UniProtKB/TrEMBL annotation, chain A:
GO molecular function, one term: oxidoreductase activity
GO CC annotations, alphabetized: cytosol
Organism of derivation: Amaricoccus macauensis
Designated name of the protein: L-lactate dehydrogenase complex protein LldE
InterPro entries found in the cross-reference section: Cys_rich_dom
TrEMBL record, chain B:
SUPFAM superfamilies: NagB/RpiA/CoA transferase-like
Protein name: L-lactate dehydrogenase complex protein LldG
Domain of life assignment: Bacteria
Domain LUD: 119-211
A Pfam family hit: LUD_dom
Species this chain originates from: Amaricoccus macauensis
UniProtKB/TrEMBL annotation, chain C:
Residue ranges of every copy of the Lactate utilization protein B C-terminal domain listed in the record: 405-466
Cited PANTHER family: LACTATE UTILIZATION PROTEIN B
GO biological-process terms attached to the record: lactate metabolic process
GO molecular function list: 4 iron, 4 sulfur cluster binding
Domain LUD as annotated: residue spans: 69-294
NCBIfam families: LutB/LldF family L-lactate oxidation iron-sulfur protein (TIGR00273)
The organism's taxonomic lineage, starting at the top: Bacteria, Pseudomonadati, Pseudomonadota, Alphaproteobacteria, Rhodobacterales
Pfam families given in the database record: Fer4_8, LUD_dom, LutB_C
Domain 4Fe-4S ferredoxin-type, chain residue ranges per copy: 308-376
Organism: Amaricoccus macauensis
Domain of life: Bacteria
Keywords: 4Fe-4S, Electron transport, Iron, Iron-sulfur, Metal-binding, Repeat, Transport
Name this polypeptide is given: L-lactate dehydrogenase complex protein LldF
Length: 254, 217, 473
């Protein structure tokens, strides 16, 4: 439900959520609308271009960036359920620094780009009500959100509003899970060593759930936990805040 | 072109061939040290000597305060006895120390490689870090502070400055000695598994005797 | 180049990952370092302001580097030191070897200097037949082991105490009394003491070169630098040209950052300023002091994307906090400098072709930049190498082709949606149970972890369908 008065938000779904776990996108949509935003999903979006950018393919990354800028600049905000993709978009000005036309447009978009959980708290002042989930959970800070966008307290504040949910500290919660986009397939052995330690730390909490704010990291952690036979179930934080904690976790069939 | 000139030319070219006036550079450099309290730690106590003592003790330096310079030999004797060492030490041949009466303590002049103890005079103390400062000079051999196992340092309370920059200021005007050393606690190492071991190549023990020569405020 | 450098990065990393003793050693040292740094910063609330200032000081120096180099040269010369200039590693080694020969040196003591490692000075001295005694405990350990440093602060951090004991028992006469760190340190003290006093030349590095006094500054915890530089007749300093600071006070501002970031201390036990040779009447000190200023690629960095790397004060915090370093240790990087800072510097020193893996073997998690005391944007610099690698065509063909295809689709939203819908359906078929255990083209993933199957339908398809429903209502 949208209200006529709220800010106009363009939802950047992200390519991973689009393909692998649409319910994250719907959870974001639902909460943004509940919080009073007029939300649209521009059809011209595909991916933020990070795979190209992280591979050094600056030309392709720039051309994808221009497409995202054009699609999202009409909105008051660009909001994404991923610190990593939102982080990439905030780097567009760097990518287009030498472009006199697109450089300033990139800067303007970067300034109004947000990760969804921090947007709900910091910009909209949203607090969920009437949520209940009887479970214990631990939380991993995804790197881009944490370091590029300052996403740290906001998801914890939102989760604190869920009755019955016990949050357990995770040793090394701010340490990378070893995903790193193409890194995990380029250097599988190193990535495996990193994610193994992360999975051990997650299991050591004894929590029922693992929550995080980036699907890439979540797929890495969930995939490793499942391979190890762990019982920990993984969700994007926004799914829990949107009341989706009863639905299938990552890798579960309904 | 000499190597020197070609390196300087490469640097110069890398900087776009521009070069500011020395005065402008100096002014900018000075500006980078403005508002020092914003970028350095507070003292551990309001009084610099107290602050020095807190910091130095935290590093494993032991401290005794005495009233007069004349009390130093007795304090040295007490320290040696407490450490179970014979009453002997190499004493720095500087007027302030040689003028004292060292009765009962054998003065061992040659600083041998494993001299048990040596007594030296500190130029300064730095309250911020609990460091003592020694300078090389005709009457101040550097090895005196490195060869013995126990380094006993005499420090005048009046020569304790608050911060590192206060010491740096004293060096201005061309008084830089060949060697200026800030000694901050006994020698140590963390080279094996990061675990701290006291007493690597330098002294394993630093004992500071603070002489309270400040007039009472 | 060492023999080790000829193997591939992946092979070295693989060997390191298989070495459980190495992992134990890395965890012990970096774990301690991380905890101590955190404790030191908790007691230094001014840290954020101080690191901004530290970065500004280094930027100021680099922006006026020609001025500062000339000022330093003038003042060091006035203090009686002789200043030499070396454009390359070879030139620097040649100068040092020549100076040792002129001093008729049979054996030289050396206190730890990463620049010395960078220019391969140990090898050059060996080739010249000059006996070299490493006096830093860690360097002593790796000299006995015939290795290179694996960390810029703890060169021997890859060795456990048990392994150090084996080396000392074999070399030290008499061997250490026991195998605990304290007994082994005592043993090294005993062995090295006589070497200090009989050396003909002492070689050190410099943490800072102070322009307005002409002094070089070294920091150590052990006291070996002073014992290396005081007794011999000749003291030689090798230092990179980026080590300049305007004044002693600027050095102190950076020292506060350096020590806290490196070991979690506030100052090292010994902070020493060396200014020229022994003065008339001085009780001790060397008769000659030589300072070799080394460029070795640095002047080039001033004008390229890597200029910010010249801020580096070699504290090692970036590697202590790096997930990759903590798995593979320093040797796997194959260069003088490991970890994030090494991944930026090694391509500068050895060429990108030689070290192309380094900028890619990083998850871009940003923790290195978060801890760097002079705010070097390490991930940005690593990305700059990736761009160069792409531009120079060093990326392998399959990756290039795959990425090209993906980018083509990403630029055509209609086509992209079609392709992703097909891919999602295929993956759903492969992962009926919810998980895919093995996927031919994604072996790097499924070798070590399962892949969750798509939850069903793409977001875009479902959203479109829902909106259509909503509109018809
Ligand atoms: S890059 Fe930064 S953190 Fe790493 S060694 Fe250099 S100064 Fe320290």
């Amino acid at each position: 439900m949208s209200t006529a008065s709220g800010p106009r938000v363009g939802l950047f779904v992200t390519c991973l959520v689009d393909a692998m776990r649409p319910q994250i996108g719907f959870a974001a949509l639902q909460l943004l609308e509940e919080a009073g935003c007029r939300v649209e999903v521009p059809r011209q979006q595909t991916c933020c271009g990070q795979p190209a950018w992280n591979s050094g393919d600056a030309a392709d990354a720039a051309s994808i960036a221009r497409q995202v800028i054009a699609a999202f600049e009409p909105y008051d905000y660009l909001v994404a359920p991923s610190g990593s993709c939102a982080g990439t978009i905030t780097h567009y000005p760097e990518l287009l620094a030498r472009d006199p036309v697109w450089g300033p447009r990139a800067a303007a978009l970067a300034a109004k780009t947000h990760e969804v959980l921090s947007f709900l708290v910091d910009v909209l002042g949203y607090t969920p009500t009437g949520l209940r989930l009887d479970a214990s959970a631990t939380y991993h800070d995804s790197c881009s959100g944490l370091r590029e966008l300052g996403v740290h307290d906001q998801p914890r504040a939102l989760l604190a509003a869920v009755e019955g949910l016990e949050l357990r500290p995770l040793e090394g919660d701010n340490v990378c899970c070893g995903f790193g986009g193409t890194f995990c397939v380029k250097y599988p052995a190193i990535s495996n060593a990193i994610i193994t330690e992360k999975a051990e730390a997650i299991d050591a909490t004894g929590a029922d759930l693992l929550l995080a704010g980036d699907l890439g990291c979540l797929m890495n952690m969930a995939g490793k936990l499942h391979r190890r036979g762990s019982k920990v179930r993984c969700y994007h934080t926004i799914e829990i805040i949107a009341g989706g904690g009863a639905g299938p976790a990552i890798g579960e069939t309904p | 072109m000499t190597t020197r000139d070609s390196i300087l030319a490469a640097v110069h070219a890398g900087l776009g061939g521009l070069r500011a006036e020395p005065d402008a550079i100096a002014a900018e450099a000075a500006g980078l040290l403005a508002d020092l309290d914003a970028i350095r730690p507070r003292l551990a106590a309001p009084d610099p000597v107290d602050a020095f003592e807190i910091k130095a003790a935290a590093l494993g330096t032991t401290i005794e305060r005495v009233r007069h310079l004349d009390d130093v030999p007795a304090a040295v004797g007490r320290y040696l006895a407490a450490q179970g060492l014979p009453p002997a030490a190499a004493v720095q041949q500087t007027a302030a120390l040689t003028a004292l009466s060292w009765e009962g303590i054998a003065q061992d002049m040659a600083t041998a490689p494993d001299q048990p103890a040596a007594v030296g005079l500190a130029r300064l103390g730095i309250a911020e870090s609990g460091s003592i400062v020694i300078h090389s000079a005709t009457d101040s051999p550097i090895l005196l502070a490195f060869l013995p196992l126990h380094h006993i340092v005499v420090l005048h309370a009046s020569s304790v400055v608050a911060h590192l920059e206060d010491y740096a200021r004293l060096l201005d005007g061309g008084s830089q000695p060949r060697n200026a050393i800030l000694i901050t606690g006994p020698s140590g190492t963390t080279d094996i598994e990061g675990s701290y071991v006291r007493g690597a190549h330098g002294p394993g023990f630093v004992h500071v005797i603070i002489v309270n020569d400040r007039s009472r405020a | 180049m060492t023999a080790q450098d000829q193997t591939s990065f992946k092979a070295r990393a693989g060997a390191a990952l298989a070495d459980t003793t190495l992992k134990l050693a890395i965890d012990r040292t970096t774990g301690t370092a991380e905890r101590k740094r955190a404790a030191a910063l908790a007691g230094f609330p001014e840290f954020e302001a101080a690191r901004a200032r530290g970065a500004a000081i280094k930027d100021h120096v680099i922006a006026n580097l020609d001025h500062y180099l000339e000022t330093f040269e003038r003042n060091a010369t006035a203090a009686g030191a002789k200043v030499h200039w070396a454009a390359t590693a070879e030139e620097a080694c040649d100068i040092v070897v020549r100076l040792c020969r002129e001093a008729d040196a049979k054996h030289v003591t050396r206190s730890k200097s990463m620049l010395g490692e960078e220019i391969h000075l140990p090898d050059a001295l060996a080739t010249a037949g000059i006996e070299r005694v490493e006096t830093d405990l860690a360097e002593h350990i790796i000299q006995l082991a015939g290795e290179h440093p694996s960390h810029i602060i703890w060169p021997a951090m890859h060795r456990t105490r048990e392994q150090v004991a084996v080396l000392f028992n074999a070399d030290h006469k008499p061997p250490p009394d026991a195998e605990d760190p304290a007994s082994m340190v005592q043993s090294a003290r005993r062995v090295l003491r006589e070497k200090f006093l009989s050396a003909d030349v002492g070689i050190s590095g410099a943490n800072f070169l102070v322009a307005d006094t002409g002094a070089t500054c070294t920091v150590t915890n052990e006291g070996n630098a002073e014992l290396t530089t005081t007794p011999p007749r000749v003291h030689i300093v090798t230092a990179g040209i980026e080590k300049l600071v305007p004044t002693t006070a600027h050095a102190f501002a950076l020292l506060r950052l350096l020590v806290r970031s490196a070991t979690g201390g506030e100052l090292t036990q010994y902070t020493t300023f060396h200014c020229g040779p022994k003065r008339p009447g001085d009780a001790d000190g060397p008769e000659e002091m030589h300072i070799v200023l080394v460029d070795n690629g640095r002047s080039r960095m001033i004008k390229d994307e890597f200029r910010e790397m010249l801020r580096c004060i070699r504290c090692g915090a970036c590697m202590n906090h790096c997930v990759v370093y903590r798995q593979i240790g320093g040797h796997a990087y194959g260069g003088t400098y490991p970890g994030p800072m090494g991944a930026v510097l090694t391509p500068v020193l050895d060429g990108l072709k030689q070290s192309r893996d380094l900028p890619f073997a990083c998850t871009m998690n940003g923790r290195c930049a978060e801890v760097c005391p002079v705010r070097i944007p390490l991930p940005t610099l690593l990305r700059a190498w990736r761009v160069r690698s792409w531009e120079e065509g060093l990326e392998k063909a399959p990756m290039r082709a795959g990425l090209g295809l993906w980018a083509t689709l990403a630029r055509r939203p209609g086509l992209y949606r079609l392709a992703s819908a097909i891919a999602v359906r295929t993956l759903r078929v492969l992962g009926r149970s919810g998980w895919i255990r093995s996927l031919p083209l994604a072996g790097g993933w499924t070798e070590h972890r399962d892949l969750p199957a798509p939850a069903g339908g793409t977001f875009m398809e479902r959203y479109k369908a829902e909106r259509a429903k909503g509109d018809s209502r």
